[in-house]
Amino acid sequence: MTAPSSPEAPWPVRTVARKIADWIGRLGEVWVEGQVAQLSRRGGAATVFLTLRDPAADLSVPVTCHRDVAERPGLELTEGSRVIVRARPDYYVARGSFSLRATEIRAVGLGELLARIERIRRLLAAEGLFDAARKRPLPFAPGVVGVITGRDSAAERDVLVTARRRWPAIRFEMVNCAVQGPQAAQNVIDGLRRLDADPTVEVIVIARGGGSVEDLLPFSDEGLVRAIAATRTPVVTAVGHETDTTLVDHVADVRAATPTDAAHRVVPEIGEQRRLVEGLRSRARSVVTGRLDQQVRWLESVRTRPVLASPDRLLHGREEDVDGLRTRARRTLVHRVEGAERDLEHARARVAALSPAATLERGYAVVQRADGSLVRDPADVTDDERLRIRVSGGRLTVRVDREADPSADQEEKQS
Amino acid sequence: MSDTEPTTTYEQAREELADVVRRLEAGGLTLEESLALWERGEELAKLCQHWLDRARERLAAAAPADDADRS
Fold first, then answer.
1. How big is chain A by its Cα radius of gyration, in Å?
2. Mutation for testing the B interface, residue in A280, A287, A302 having most B CBs under 10 Å
3. Among A187, A227, A323, B38, which residue has the fewest nearby CB atoms (within 10 Å)?
4. What is this enzyme's EC (chain B) (predicted)?
5. CA distance A170 to chain B (A)
6. Residue A145 sits in the same domain as residue A262
């Protein structure tokens, strides 16, 4: 082993390079997963250079491999494709450059990723985490909205700007965290728990812009999905483009198509609400006024009814009746009186006709005995009987004296 | 009309008034009955008017506030 290096006896570069090479070599062969960031095939060169990026940690490492490894049939190696690489650390002493020497590259196909998500989905679906019955309604006008999104991301701006425009009184509880990479899921879970614990937060929005399947992978993380299912506060997700579906979308209470849509779902639009309230208010008023007008018209119609409007008409009626009756009474009376007069006339006439006065007038007389009975036959009377004679001028009393004219009795009988 | 709130509700007054008018129009009443009925009718009409005026006032009372708070 070479003596330790010191300022007085420094090692030459070659020694240091060799030692580095030894150290690095100790790692041995590894399988590493990552995303192809750059890929360069210089003309016919036997070696292909690429850099392998860790999408979650934003780190990358140079990888070299033989052309055959990179161009293995069926392996469409392009920038951005996810791969699994078997490699051994290599320190190129000549230039002091480090790279992983790959001996095999396998593509982690999109299919593989999606298959993994599908397995998780089916598992969680079986547990009923996605059941519609679990979905909670969103509060109508929440006081505070919890928002989990990338710091200063477009998604964040969309949610905040839109929500404030719709409901200026809205307040936010922001959680800015990584929305990509292995820590993303855990960050979101922590943010979720903190917001869920805060009683003032009435709804939580998880918003993220579009991204590749890999970028959105954290939002299909089983732990995150379970955390969302366990929250007390309703959760709205707006992750990726409308076409992307991540597992959080299935478990969320509401899946918004975009961050802006999330804002629309979470806060009502104040103008619209005011118009709505105004509309209801005026409808209520018009019902009442309509009713009132109707009743006023009814009262008006009742009051103009003759029986009420002109009660004197009643009296008129009665007066007319009375007048009518009076005239009729008078008329009948007059008739009767006239009738009576006529009867009187007749009676008088008859009396006159029957009454002896006229006969007396003509010189006849009525002879009555003391008891008033009429004397029709001299034989009826006795001598010296007192009789009453009525002549037209009056009455006189006489006595019967047969001596005076004995023959008188006979003559009377013959006539 | 007593100044305290009448106890008869608007509907009761209206119902009775309609009945009074019906009986008056049917006729066959003595003079005394017609007069008494007519007076009752007048009283009921005033009562209905009272309630309708009150309703109108309450509605009007709401209106200005309504415009005032239109911020």
1. 69
2. A302
3. A323
4. 3.1.11.6
5. 19
6. yes
CATH number at residue A83: 2.40.50.140
pLDDT digits (tens, 9 = 90+) for A332-371: 878 888 888 888 888 888 877 777 777 788 888 888 888 8
Q: What is the per-residue pLDDT across B7-60, written as a single tens digit (0 to 9) for each?
A: 778 888 889 998 988 898 888 888 888 888 888 988 988 888 888 888 888 888
Out of A281, A308, A318, name the one closest to residue B21 (CB). A308
Contact A181, A57 (CB under 8 A): yes
Pairwise CB contact (< 8 Å): B10 & A295: yes
Q: B60 and chain A: CB distance < 8 Å anywhere?
A: no
In this structure, are residues B17 and B39 in contact, taking their beta carbons and an 8 Å threshold?
no
Q: Are A18 and A93 in contact (CB under 8 A)?
A: yes
Contacts of A318 in chain B (CB under 8 A): 31
For the segment A251-303, what is each residue's pLDDT rounded down to a tens digit? 999 999 999 999 999 998 888 888 999 999 999 999 999 999 999 999 999 88
Q: What ipTM was estimated for this complex?
A: 0.76
Residues of B in contact with A302 (CB under 8 A): 17-18, 21, 45
The answer to the question of residue A114 being in a domain is no
Kindly report the nearest CA distance between residue A279 and chain B, in angstroms. Answer: 13
B2 pLDDT more than 50: no
Provide the strand spans (E) within A246-365. 254-255
Query: Are A47 and A80 found together in one domain?
Result: yes
Asked if pLDDT for residue A413 goes beyond 70, the answer is: no
Residue A369 lies in a domain: yes
Six-digit token string for A213: 């399947």
Answer yes or no: do A153 and A249 share one domain. Answer: yes
Q: Which of A108, A96, A97 is nearest to A49 (CA)?
A: A97
Answer yes or no: do A303 and B45 touch at CB < 8 A. Answer: yes
| HSE value, Cβ hemisphere, 13 Å, CA-based, for A272 | 8
pTM of the model: 0.49
Query: Domain span at residue A282?
Result: 271-304
CB-based contact (8 Å) between B61 and chain A? no
Same domain, A134 and A238: yes
DSSP label of A232: S
Total structural domains within chain A: 5
Are A150 and A243 members of one domain?
Answer: yes
Q: Which residues of B touch A285 (CB under 8 A)?
A: 59, 62
Instruction: Look at residue B3 in the predicted model and tell me its pLDDT.
Output: 55
Out of A285, A299, A318, name the one closest to residue B45 (CB): A299
